[in-house]
Amino acid sequence: MLRQCILPTELWTQIASYLPVRDAALLSGVCWDASRLQLQSVILNPEDSNELSAHWISMLRDTDRTTPSEGYIWASKRWEAAELLQLHLNCSQARSQEWMSVLAQAATSLSKLDGLLLDCFEEDFKAWEGLLDMHLLNIILLHAQQLRLLQLGCFAPKFLMPLGGLEHLILSVGCSEADGLLSCIASAHSLKTLLVASHEGAKTSMFPSEVDLAQLSQLEAVSLRDVMPTRLALPPHCQLSVKVDSLKHANSAVWASVREHLVAFHITSFHEGLPALEALPELLLQDPPLEKVRMRFESIGSCTNPVLLGAALARVPRLKLKSKQSMYVLVPSAVAWSSVTLYAELELQLEFESKAPHFQQGSCPAMSLRWGTLRGVGVMELFRDTPQRSVRYDFDEYAGTHVKISPEPGCGQGCGHWACSCACCTFCLERAGRMTAHWFDNPQLSSRDSKGWC
Hints:
Layout: H1 9-16, H2 21-27, H3 32-35, E1 41-44, H4 49-56, H5 70-76, E2 84-89, H6 93-105, E3 115-120, H7 125-128, H8 134-143, E4 149-152, E5 168-173, H9 178-186, E6 193-198, E7 205-206, E8 211-212, E9 221-225, E10 227-228, E11 232-233, E12 239-244, H10 247-250, H11 253-257, E13 262-269, H12 282-285, E14 292-297, E15 307-308, E16 318-323, E17 327-331, E18 339-352, H13 357-360, E19 366-375, H14 378-385, E20 390-396, E21 400-406, H15 426-431, H16 443-450
Parallel strand pairs: 1-2, 2-3, 3-4, 4-5, 5-6, 6-9, 7-10, 8-11, 9-12, 12-13, 13-14, 14-16, 15-17, 16-18, 17-18, 18-19
Antiparallel strand pairs: 19-21, 20-21
């Protein structure tokens, strides 16, 4: 019945704008008008080539059907109006090279691009390094004059052409590419958000040069993940989120120099423990408190010497602590958390400095607790003092017990208290309404970023 329908081209275009490439290919066989549709979003995974070709082969009458990249060719003929191009590399290098060949032949037609995203799994970065020719990338950037979002998660070029109109930039880099990239970033006068992550695994990259972004007057947010420059300068009112891999890097003087810009700080160090509050960087204990603090250690405190979550940590709106082994913490009598997370893979012992009057008065924060073995009676006291709260229990044979306590009854997941807040990743950009929402229906594009600060 649908094959006999005659619908206006405008309606087909509206329908196609919300379809993934595979469904758009199926739709193109419905009628003549549908076959002429131009793709608005092109999200392709090279591993899908054989499956996509099976769907498209009946429509590819002018293409060599023995070519594995025929699906890519089909897409490249219909992407002149595309606003988004995303390629996720997670397959053989030979298959990805076929896609790059198609991309090179049709690069000049990508003049309407609003977002370009090239990504791969972190562990595959070395395999894809150098796969995308720098000249080809600059050709795309030259013709995509409307480009606002650029994500290079699988490619760290040593030089990019000036990025005058770019608003959102996401890069994965190493020390060797730092100097060339930083000079390109300085030319992006319209830049509003910048995320720079190290592609060297969990190891923090020590940038040999200074990062001076003070001249970028429109820059609103910067997120540095496992990247530590020798000096950092930011424009006024620019917020900064930082992730490092050790207490040593957390205590670097560069972060203290930009303390007024810091809104979130993340320490992931599973090879060392946190014996006491004094081991933390002074910037985490100073006033005013940061908006979000997340810390992961091998262990936190001890049964005879629990870590007091005092000083400015007691007033951090969102606090998250994770321990690979055991966690022993003492909650002060006055806290101002809106959400707090305490995860211990082995033992969790939660104690209160007093009777927790704030909790009794109805200002209990959203809480997420997870443990393998529960010690002490602190958690039981918490449940006793907050009977009116919405409490959700989960038990897993391997992950242990998980309890969520929400401020509002029936809130369940805590109303997004644990969502990412870096303001620079694709998850945050979509949530803030800065990018086209239906771009991010593909979970590969946003799921990993959304876990970045959770």
